[in-house]
Input
Amino acid sequence: SWRMELSNCTPQDGLVNQVIFVCILIMKLGDKVLFPSYSEISRERPEELRSVLRKTRLGLIGAAWGASLFLIVFGDKLIGLLYDDRYKAAGWMLQLLSIDTLVGILALTYDNVLLALGKSFLITIFLIFQIAIQTCAMIFGSQLAGQQGVILGLSFLGWMLYPLKAIFLRRISIWQPEVDIPVILVAIPVASICLYRLIPAIRIAQLR
Output
């Protein structure tokens, strides 16, 4: 079962989890700055909120894309440089999981403005959706391709969650398609090329 697959995770999975934790920690540190800034603007200069949000999001998205593209291209080499052969499989995992950030960052960069506008209940709703989608992706991925399928499912979690979040954001008039849609259009070929390059490594991992 998928639970058995997860219980059999190798040491490199822990390394990938550490990388994800560092990324989340960086986002949380950013929250401490963005939330009070958005709150002040929404109270005192609400007409400027959308333009400030756009500029801030572009900066965060650009930084996240830079880190993700680096890991997509050099993730395997980075693991090979820092760790011995026991952790070799973490290379393709790191590259694959980095795909999620290409679109996942779009949804994350709305969270602080939702808090500033007093829409914290929406974040709770999004979290419920995320848990449900993540669980389904892991189960389906495990049944389809074992541990490699679990990683593949997690690599597109942000892609699956984004459309649901966009629907809610559009209803409260803070969705920014002028930013998000071009990013998604670029992310699709980038993710496709990455998957194509990683297919041999994934197949080798399935044979072990």
Notes: Residues 1-12 have pLDDT under 50 and may be disordered. The helical segments are 2-7, 11-44, 49-82, 90-108, 111-116, 120-155, 157-171, 177-207. The two ends are 18 Å apart (CA to CA). Residues 120-155 form the longest helix (36 residues).
